[in-house]
Amino acid sequence: MNKITAQEAQAFGKVGVLYGGRSAEREVSKMSGAGVLAALQSHGIDAHLFDTGERSLAELAAEQFDRVFIALHGRYGEDGSIQGALELLGIPYTGSGVMASAVGMDKITTKNLWVKAGLPTPGYAQLDAGSDLAQVVAELGLPLMMKAPHEGSTIGITKVTDAADMQAVYDATAALDDSVLAESFVSGREFTVAVLGGGANARALPVVEIVAPQGNYDYQNKYFTDDTQYFCPPQLDAAMQAEMQRLALLAYRAVGCEGWGRVDVLLRESDNTPFLLEVNTSPGMTSHSLVPMAARATGLSYEDLCVEILRAARLKLAKA
Questions:
Q1: pTM of the model
Q2: Which domain covers residue 263, as residue numbers?
């Protein structure tokens, strides 16, 4: 860890670490927030936890934070909601702005943008109560993935292998979200690429490969077991790693992300073609999280990573 000077630590002022929240990822966010708090405090920064799931916006304003680190995941924290409130309150914040956060949280809108930009992503369809599910199967084939497009941490994701199960899986997924994403299943290896910065200055960190038990990288295997294996660098030739980093940067910029984020990629086993899955605009910062892992591969410690992210905190809608 490269200790920052006392002068720089003081210049950050009073820092709020927003964590907890009200989404299905509340417990993960609490772990992320605790880690970020300890990291910032280790540098002498005056950092404090603030649980947006238990405290009001009026209380947030009363704390008079000079800037905040957003360690929230999912709805109300990663979807532009808290970002809009912070813009109104005039509190600089980490990560992407209102629009990019909202777009990144919506898997369907994200994929629409990527397709328009000519970026590779699995075939998909947006479903509602009136959708012809048999036609969806005919177009996308089986197996396919059914996803709640506004959830994260693999919540609301089901693999459908039998057309007879489509309606039941749709109903269960629709109970979690106001729309449903059906996506072609891509059989292959799973990777992720963390990105720091924004615009032309955004940089991709080393590629991480995720090898989960039975290929099931679910909520439990993501956060609460040690059975999932991670490889950084992965067993992948340098040219493909560079291609994944290139695609991740294009995907990140297409959504308008800044500060930091993570782009998930699948490498189809049949022909080694990479496909973009989704972008995370407020990734996990737990002991199992992938952005810190990629940063460590470049020599950037968890503590220094948190400081780098915090340095970039700003209001996005204010005039220069």
A1: 0.93
A2: 104-120+187-305
